[in-house]
Every structure is written in structure tokens, then in C-alpha cells.
Amino acid sequence: AQSVTQLDSQVPVFEEAPVELRCNYSSSVSVYLFWYVQYPNQGLQLLLKYLSGSTLVESINGFEAEFNKSQTSFHLRKPSVHISDTAEYFCAVSRINTDKLIFGTGTRLQVFP
Amino acid sequence: DAGVTQSPTHLIKTRGQQVTLRCSPKSGHDTVSWYQQALGQGPQFIFQYYEEEERQRGNFPDRFSGHQFPNYSSELNVNALLLGDSALYLCASSANAGGPLGSGYTFGSGTRLTVV
């Protein structure tokens, strides 16, 4: 079975500061990895994903995540956050060739002016 | 191009009642998955429908059932509601079930169910 651990339930940060949201996973088989973002009263939006190839993946709005197989991690980073990045961020995994996502409990990123 | 549409957006039911939630997938998608997101938690997989059949199921009791129609839309039914069923129910659609997950899910905004 797969599981996902998001170590920080809340991360407060000031605008323009860097941020890292941590995600560790457990699986005995190869997995795909995802980060989703959820704004208040909305559904989930895919931020970025790792399927194969380069271990560093980037999103269009400045976030990046690096797949580290030895540490079973997929931490999300952004060098300079905006107020508009305030949201809940979920890390998720799925077994290769399945559609079932296993989510972590989420990290609430709160960006202050 | 419309994304995933869910209805209703909010719903209040009494314990013991039954509820039906509806989902229309994104154009071009043929697979619908349902997730339950309790307050303060990550979404949990309920089940997935493809070709009008339940293809995968998570760890949810038989009180949770579903259906997929020929136009790929889907319903989630919950019988004998419990207070613990209060949650945001998310529908996600995808294309080519069984293929690589690279095509990805598109999530709807969810139905907020409150059981009193």
C-alpha cells in the first residue's frame, strides 16, 4: 500500500520569502507523484507532477518539486511567494498504471504582507 | 470548454436519509472518480466508474454506491446517512482509464454535504 506524509499542517510566510512544503511517501512499488492546490471553496487543481525522466519538475507559476527516490520525498518549493499563493497544498501518489490517488493531509500555506 | 460540473454545490440532510450527488465530466473524458474530503483532511478515494461499471473501489461501506450513464456523467448515492458522512465530495474526470495517468484528473469544485 502507498501512503503520503505532509509533515507541516500550516506554513506561515511573508510575501517574497522562499518556502518549502515537505512531502514524504511510502510505497513498495514505483509511483507517480503530484502536487495539487486547493483555493478556498474550490476543487483541486493540479500544480505539477512527476511521472518519469528529470527529477525536477516545474509549474507555470514558479513552483518546483524534486523527486528524491532515496529519501522518498517530493518537496515543493518556491523562491518568492505572493499573497495569491495562500491556499491548501496536497501531495499525492498513485501506483503506475492506476488512477487512484492517495493524498496527504495537506499543508495550509498562509502568505502575509 | 466546460470543466467538471457538480451539483448541487451545498446540501443539508438529516441523519438516516439518502442523498444523490451528480457529476458531469469534462468534455472528452470518459472516466469519473469520486473522492470524499472531510474537514481538515486530504481527499479519500471512494470509487471510479468507466464504461458504466465500477472499476476500482476504496475503503468505503456499501452505503456508498454509484452509477455512470452512457453520456459519461455519474451519480454518487449515499444511504442511511451518518453524521460522519459530512464532507466535501469531489468528482474528478479523466480520459482513457487504464492508460497512463499522464492525462491527469480534472476536479470539480465539489458538493458540500452536511448531515445533521
Protein architecture, described:
The complex is a heterodimer of chains A (113) and B (116). Chain A has 113 residues and is mostly beta strands. Chain A is built from no helices and 12 strands. Chain A has strands at residues 3-5, 10-14, 19-21, 24-26, 31-38, 44-50, 56-58, 64-68, 73-78, 87-95, 102-103, 107-112. In chain A, the strands form 3 sheets. In chain A, strands 2, 5, 6, 10, 11 and 12 form a 6-stranded mixed sheet that branches. Chain B is mainly β and 116 residues long. Chain B contains no helices and 11 strands. In chain B, strands 2, 4, 5, 6, 9, 10 and 11 form a 7-stranded mixed sheet that branches. In chain B, strand 4 and strand 5 (44-50) form a beta hairpin. The chains are: A mainly beta (113), B mainly beta (116). At the A-B interface, strand 6, strand 10 and strand 11 of A face strand 4, strand 5 and strand 9 of B.
Structure characteristics:
heterodimer, A: 113 residues, 6-stranded mixed beta sheet, 4-stranded antiparallel beta sheet, 12 strands, 0% helix, globular, B: 116 residues, mainly beta
Summary of the model, kept short:
Chain A is mainly beta and 113 residues long.
Give me the oligomer status: heterodimer
Average pLDDT taken over every residue of chain A: 92
Strand count, sense and barrel status of the largest sheet of chain A are: 6 strands, mixed
Structural class of chain A: mainly beta
Count of discrete alpha- or pi-helical segments spanning 4 or more residues of chain B: 0
Residue stretches of chain B low in confidence (pLDDT < 50, at least 5 long) are: none
Mean pLDDT of chain B: 91
Helix content of chain B: under 10%
Give the topology string of chain A: H per helix, E per strand.
EEEEEEEEEEEE
Q: Gyration radius of chain A, to the nearest Å?
A: 13 Å
> Biggest β-sheet of chain B, characterized?
7 strands, mixed
Uncertain parts of chain A:
none
Q: Which range best describes the helical content of chain A: under 10%, 10-25%, 25-40%, 40-55%, 55-70% or over 70%?
A: under 10%
Strand content of chain A: over 45%
- Please count the beta strands of chain A (DSSP E, at least 2 residues each): 12
* Overall spatial form of chain B: globular
**Strand-pairing-aware structural class of chain B:** mainly beta
What sort of overall outline of chain A do the alpha carbons produce when their principal axes are compared?
Answer: globular
Radius of gyration of chain B: 13 Å
